[in-house]
């Protein structure tokens, strides 16, 4: 069946561009993120500042949380994925978005992502997800990828997807080719991770847009925020403040702020609305005000 062929096709057609090493608890290269004296700390460990600094060469690389990944895949494929088989994000002080802990360290995690990505690609409405007038052109594939990745796609990256699409279309048909491209995109590092690498110590427009979106809504940048990233206007403080105001007014931001306080206080997330009282709502408004002033 189409569903059964997708994962096999991805592995056969796509191959691997790198390797994921399985590590054990005794692996000397694993460091304790809570121990600043750990001798295994090195310049390749993920590291974050509120703003990147030019003298720190460690990469700003952050895996999306399970919630963020589910929201992102739904945005890309139009299908809500079931990621319940993934392990819960490791917490630090009750918070589940500690960058040093958000990594993909084992093959089982990736196998789960591949399985769920296959389900999503098989169930997606392709005309809504990857609209192509007949066989997909490189331009149409690029449009899809840039929406999925929330940043520009260079010719080298595009060529990989165009090649996989053409191969899958030749083996089966154009519909199968589009599903392979969708599946590949869902498990791409450009989706699973976001970066804060910056340029000359300053976040790029697209990195800043993603940071704003995931911080405030646990979701990828919407079309309005993407436009501000594409034209670079998000780098202007006035435009950025207006985007923060707009995002804070959304239902997604309200859920995100409430979730933050439940994480911070170590409370159960069940029935959030019913358990938020007047004092907490006042605090929620205070945090919203701080977000506006800080950004």
Question: What would your notes on this structure say?
Answer:
This protein is an all-alpha fold and about 300 residues long. Helix content is about 55%, strand content about 0%. The chain has 14 helices and two strands; from the N terminus they run αβαααααααβαααααα. The protein has helices at about 1-15, 65-75, 105-125, 125-130, 140-150, 155-170, 175-185, 190, 205-215, 225-230, 235-250, 250-265, 270-275, 280-295, and strands at about 60-65, 195. A two-stranded antiparallel sheet has the order 1-2. Helix 5 (about 140-150) packs across helix 6. The relative contact order is 0.11. The model is unreliable at about 10-35 and about 40-55 (pLDDT under 50).
Widest sheet, order of strands: 1-2
Quickly count the helices. 14
The profile of the biggest β sheet is: 2 strands, antiparallel
Poorly predicted regions: 11-36, 38-57
Number of strands: 2
Rg value: 20 Å
Measured as a percent range, the helix fraction is 40-55%
The whole-number mean of residue pLDDT values reads: 78
Strand fraction equals under 5%
Shape: globular
Quote the distance from N terminus to C terminus. 50 Å
- Sheet/helix structural class: mainly alpha
One letter per element, helices H and strands E, the order comes to HEHHHHHHHEHHHHHH
């Amino acid at each position: 069946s189409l569903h059964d062929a997708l994962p096999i096709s991805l592995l056969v057609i796509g191959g691997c561009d790198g390797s994921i090493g399985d590590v054990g608890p005794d692996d000397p290269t694993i460091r304790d993120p809570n121990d600043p004296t750990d001798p295994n700390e090195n310049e390749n460990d993920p590291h974050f500042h509120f703003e990147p600094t030019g003298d720190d060469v460690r990469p700003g690389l952050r895996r999306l949380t399970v919630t963020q990944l589910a929201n992102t895949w739904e945005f890309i494929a139009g299908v809500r994925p079931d990621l319940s088989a993934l392990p819960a994000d490791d917490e630090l002080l009750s918070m589940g978005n500690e960058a040093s802990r958000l990594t993909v360290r084992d093959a089982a995690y990736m196998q789960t992502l591949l399985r769920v990505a296959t389900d999503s690609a098989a169930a997606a409405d392709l005309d809504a997800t990857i609209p192509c007038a007949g066989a997909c052109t490189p331009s149409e594939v690029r449009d899809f990828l840039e929406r999925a990745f929330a940043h520009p796609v260079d010719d080298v990256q595009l060529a990989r997807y165009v090649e996989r699409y053409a191969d899958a279309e030749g083996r089966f048909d154009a519909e199968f080719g589009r599903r392979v491209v969708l599946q590949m995109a869902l498990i791409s590092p450009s989706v699973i991770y976001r970066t804060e690498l910056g340029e000359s110590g300053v976040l790029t427009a697209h990195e800043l847009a993603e940071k704003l979106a995931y911080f405030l809504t646990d979701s990828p940048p919407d079309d309005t925020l993407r436009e501000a990233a594409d034209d670079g206007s998000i780098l202007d403080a006035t435009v950025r403040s207006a985007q923060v105001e707009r995002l804070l007014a959304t239902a997604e931001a309200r859920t995100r702020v409430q979730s933050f306080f439940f994480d911070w206080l170590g409370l159960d997330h069940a029935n959030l609305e019913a358990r938020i009282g007047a004092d907490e709502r006042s605090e929620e408004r205070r945090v919203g005000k701080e977000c506006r002033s800080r950004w």
